[in-house]
Amino acid sequence: MILNKLKKLIGLALFGIVGVGVLASPAHANSAETSYLMWQMPTNVVSFPVYVYQGDTQTAYLYSPTQQSFIGGYDPSSTTASYDLYFQDSSDAWFGCSVVLTSGKIDTSTTCPGTVISPPVQSSNVYTVGPGATAWPAATTPPNKHKAVNYSGRKITFVNNTDHEKIRIGQHCTVSSNPNNDNCTNNQTLFEIARNDSAIFYVDGDGSKPPTSSLSGLISNGFTLTAYQHKKGDDWVQTGGYGVGQQPFATKIEFTHLKVGTKTVNGKKVQIPTGSTNFDISAVDGYNIAAAGYPETPTYCTYTVPPENSNVLGAGKYGKNNLLAAIAGDETICGKSSQLPKGYSGTGSKPWDLVVKSSEQYEGCRSPCSYATNASSADEDKFCCTGKYNSPSSCDQLKGEIGANNSTYVTNLKSPISKHVYRFAYDDAIGDFACPAETSFVIIFGVQDD
Prior knowledge:
Radius of gyration: 24 Å
Strand content: 25-35%
Number of strands: 30
Distance between the termini: 15 Å
Largest sheet: 10 strands, mixed
Low-confidence stretches: 1-31
């Protein structure tokens, strides 16, 4: 069963099989490090970028006062470390100072003026540290081999770990949000991937190869497994894509990779991102196959809530051993999630049958929104959070009121069935993450057997 395989993928600590992350909340609960320290630069008195060093090694490239750049795990009673920070002003003069931590506190040898460590809000585990709005002293020696991050390698690797001979990956992109971006297409067959093989999508290139110039990014971009061929020579089975006339029910992996601009520093152009990369796996329309996603190189990501890139809900370090998000694609779970709250007297049979089959072959599971839309239900707004249900406060229905948020589809899609997956509109606090702008991702369809 796919669910049993997903359990193998999601956790040694929970299931005793394969150690690649536990379904837990909040995000940071999965790590031995439970609190993190993030740089917080002032909005004035410094010129960006700021280069951070430990000894002779550059450890951070800070391009904005709103950037999420993590130093690492933090213990307020024991963390001891020293950092040197540098920036260059418009006249190319260097300025620098040091931040020194001893037993989790600012050491008196710190030379960055007004440096403080700010504790997190109650719901977060992110401390911030940074200088105040006071001029830095001139640097007697420029930093050693300072460099900007190279953002041109941003990519998404799709892996076919299913039992199917081949799978097709579709791309779904909001063209109006991506003017003059040839990489934003709506293509039901972006990739065709053989079993145990993979394909790479380059975010800023033409999809199939890295960029040569502009790093335009992608806004509101999604990918789904739109079809599969179980055995060589079999007909392709369609799995609820986003083509013309289709009512989708496919697991959707969504990204926003913001544009990377340039700035001239000391006569050289350096890359300056406009913000973090956002990631989520969505089952708002339904789901059709097990899927998991994680940063290719382990990195710190935060939950995001409006406004974007907030760390108010906490952070964690994610990678292959601690998945950002995962979901099972199991027919039995879908069947158990078709029960609507007692007393519902609206459109369709009771319970709704969310399972989608073709010739008795399981294709996927509709969400209540997809079902209501497909059935032209008069209660569609309640299940899709549209019309007057266009905010979290009005989308979350009150006790006794039927809605997407209190259907068994939502209540059943939790650990160990899914981890950090959107289950209905405005489910932000569960599944929307902000990762560093340079982050590349791996998306596995199906699950690993070892």
